[in-house]
Design brief:
With 564 residues, the chain is mainly α. It is built from 28 helices and no strands. The chain has a domain at 467-563. It is 53% helix and 0% strand.
């Protein structure tokens, strides 16, 4: 684009544009225009206002077009024709009409007059897109200029075709599939939204797929605009991104708006997005639950719709520990109890895997759910197998309290829960209260059996120990216990000299002695403190020597094994 045209269009300099485009003395925008106040350009470098800038740019461009050449400046290129000037674009593909429409000052009279000047010289620019697919109407709506939007629509009405021409301009979509209505909603410009809908009441139907104006209004929580869109056209588009509809978005934001949408169209509750999720799936996946009864009332079959991974809504609720949602689903649709995903897991398998303790506790105390306690997945694992593999002691204890829980069911590999618990016990040096050890002992006390593979249990556990790792365990545990014993001894030593009650003053007959000396409680405290100090000191010393001895023994064993 010619730099003079770019500057004039960016500044909305109507007079400069008339000069550049050879407009002459013809009138501009057909309305009363307030006379422009000419402000002299200060020569001392003072600040300039918008009118002085306009006046200066006009003078400079007028000289450029007229071919005035300053002395010593050399030859200047001939002025371009009007058609060539208006064919120029910016690096983004904006024409002069785009620049006038997107300016933050586009509501001013000089910008509106400039639009009229440019449009009458190049009418195809009215709906010409830039590289992003935006037309001047997109730019005007994005800038929030209701006057500029009205001006562009009036120009479209004056063209041949009348309403059809206006409809074509107003429904033009950019590269994102959005019309100027989307930009008005995103800018929260209610006046522009109403103006566009007055010109085309069915504009909210565009696009039929992708982000519809209604969906965008709900995403931005502009619920009053959503009401306006539906009031103008009750057949508007409900579509959203990625195959979703507006209800997929609404269930994550506002319950009241979701209820309104369902009153408008109950079919929204049945729609599946690209990954197969219904609004009920998405509501539960994001940790919701309050909308479950409302969504089921609108579409009871939604509880029986799996997504692309085969998960039903009850599986999603179980994975997020949504107990109230699970209860609502089982109350409305008891048959959901036996629904399995593609791996054969019930909702209880999913709850155990995701450590949803509330749901597992509810299932163990509900007779209705007791029928699936022993259900096996595609690998033959029951919920008890899964809990044992996770090493979750709380989950295992909850399941063992259920009388209908069968303890000796083998999976497809022939392993019972006791068999798995044995394999999960760490070998070598470990803490006595290790959860895997307690799980194994609990299963044995409950009467669990190893099954037909019991003779090969020892073959599945490693027989050899890593001497380096065992040595590190002993060294680390010795250091930890030693630090604890030293801290105890230090506290006991400090308590021995920091006696309660303090000491008697020097002028007292027994000066320097403890104030509470001779009392039974004080003497008992002194004896206990002394005993604790002696025991802690002995423990510290013994632990240090024993730890050093154990490290030496491990090093000797390691050296001997390496030699052998």
């Amino acid at each position: 684009m010619d730099p003079w045209l770019l500057m004039a269009a960016s500044m909305g300099d109507c007079e400069a544009l008339k000069t550049l485009l050879n407009w002459g003395d013809a009138p501009v925008w057909p309305k009363a225009v307030a006379p422009q106040v000419v402000v002299e350009v200060p020569v001392d470098g003072d600040a300039l206002d918008d009118r002085s800038i306009t006046n200066r740019s006009f003078n400079v461009q007028q000289q450029a077009v007229a071919g005035v050449v300053e002395e010593g400046s050399g030859d200047q290129p001939a002025a371009l024709s009007t058609e060539s000037l208006l064919e120029g674009v910016t690096p983004l593909g904006d024409t002069a009409l785009h620049l006038l429409a997107k300016s933050g000052y586009s509501s001013r009279e000089n910008f509106l007059d400039s639009v009229y000047v440019v449009y009458n010289k190049a009418r195809p620019l009215l709906d010409k897109p830039n590289k992003l697919g935006d037309t001047p109407l997109h730019c005007a709506a994005r800038a929030g200029s209701c006057k500029m939007v009205y001006c562009l629509l009036e120009l479209a009405k004056g063209d041949e075709g009348g309403f059809e021409r206006v409809k074509a301009v107003i429904r033009k979509q950019n590269m994102r599939g959005e019309t100027a209505l989307h930009d008005a909603i995103r800018g929260r410009k209610d006046d522009i939204v109403i103006l566009l809908l007055m010109e085309d009441s069915q504009l909210a139907r565009v696009p039929s797929e992708g982000m519809s104006p209604l969906c965008l209004a709900v995403v931005l929580e502009q619920y009053h605009i959503a009401m306006i869109l539906h009031e103008k056209d009750n057949q508007l588009s409900y579509s959203g991104p990625d195959g979703q509809n507006v209800l997929h978005v609404s269930v994550l934001k506002d319950i009241e708006m979701s209820e309104i949408l369902l009153r408008w169209n109950k079919e929204l509750a049945k729609k599946q997005c690209d990954n197969g999720s219904t609004p009920l799936h998405l509501h539960l996946f994001r940790g919701g639950g309050a909308m479950v009864p409302i969504l089921l009332e609108a579409n009871l079959s939604a509880a029986y719709q799996p997504n692309r991974s085969g998960s039903f809504p009850i599986h999603i609720a179980a994975s997020n520990n949504q107990l109230n949602a699970v209860i609502s689903l089982l109350k409305k649709c008891p048959e959901c109890l036996n629904l399995c995903d593609t791996t054969g897991r019930t909702f209880l398998h999913v709850a155990v895997e995701n450590k949803s303790y509330n749901i597992v506790s509810y299932a163990c105390g509900t007779p209705l759910v007791a029928s699936i306690l022993n259900t096996q997945d595609n690998n033959g694992n029951t919920v008890l197998h899964v809990a044992v593999q996770l090493g979750d002691l709380t989950m295992v204890c909850s399941l063992l309290r259920e009388q209908k829980m069968q303890l000796n069911i083998p999976n497809n590999s022939g392993r019972t829960p006791l068999h798995l618990a044995w394999c999960m016990i760490p070998h070598g040096l470990f803490f006595g209260w290790n959860p895997q050890v307690i799980i194994y002992q609990s299963l044995r006390y409950a009467g669990a059996k190893p099954g037909c593979y019991g003779a090969s249990l020892l073959d599945e556990r490693p027989r050899s120990l890593d001497n380096d790792k065992e040595s590190e365990k002993i060294k680390d545990s010795t250091q930890t216990l030693g630090i604890g014993a030293v801290l105890i001894a230090t506290v006991a030593f400090g308590a021995t000299f920091a006696l309660p009650g303090g000491y008697r003053a020097d002028d007292h007959p027994d000066g320097g002695t403890p104030t509470l000396a001779g009392r039974y409680a004080f003497d008992a405290f002194i004896m206990a403190t002394t005993l604790a100090f002696v025991c802690a000191s002995l423990a510290t010393t013994g632990l240090m020597f024993s730890g050093m001895a154990m490290v030496d023994i491990c090093q000797s064993v390691k050296s001997t094994s390496n030699y052998l």
